Amino acid sequence: MPELLPRRRLDQPRRPRALRFELDPEAFARFSERLARFLGTGKFLFWQTVLVIAWITINLLAVQYRWDPYPFILLNLAFSTQAAYAAPLILLAQNRQDDRDRVALEEDRSRAAQTKADTEFLARELAALRLAVGEVATRDYLRSELDRLRGDLVSKPRGRSRPAADAVRADPRWDDGGQG
Predict the structure, then answer these.
(1) Which of 47, 50, 56 is closest to 76 using CA atoms?
(2) For helices 42-61 and 27-39, what crossing angle results, to 10°?
(3) Helix 27-39 crosses helix 73-135 at what angle (to 10 degrees)?
(4) Which is the most buried residue in 5, 79, 132, 143, by most CB within 10 A?
């Protein structure tokens, strides 16, 4: 039997026919962070200063273009609106940075705890090795023992000692019938 098209399958939920507009929940937060970073730069201050100087110059000198007379109420309204939006955006950016800092701090703490545990383990292993090395015969100790044994062997005569030879003669297994 041929496979049914996905839209006709009864075991699958239907897709909604209306247009769905999906938003990335982090998109606005990323935008606010970029804007907050820009508001804190010298570039922003420079261009805002240029705009204010141009605004005031045009409204004072160009009589036919006066859209905001001397008390510059419209300019003050623009600054108030900018401040009203900038403050929450900056706070949002700071909250996101605090969250990132908190995660980084937790990772640093766990890494420091792991490093401490590793260091303590290595210290115990090093102490155990020091104890084991203290019980191991060193080259100098072995050399001195071999020299002492060689000295003992050189100072004793070669051949059997008299009591050992008498013991061999007394043993009936070694009896050669008096031909010895």
Answers:
(1) 56
(2) 70
(3) 100
(4) 79
Scanning the structure block, which residue is given the tokens 């008299």? 162
CA-to-CA distance for 133 and 169, rounded, in angstroms?
49
In Å, how far are 48, 146, 148, 158 from 139, measured between CA atoms? 81, 11, 14, 29
Residue 142 backbone zone (phi > 0: left; psi -120 to 50: alpha; other: beta): alpha
Question: CA 136, CA 145: separation in Å to the nearest integer?
Answer: 14
And the tokens for 174? 């070694």
For residue range 122-161, list pLDDT tens digits in order.
Answer: 999 999 988 887 777 778 888 999 999 999 888 876 655 5
Residue 5 structure tokens: 């098209």
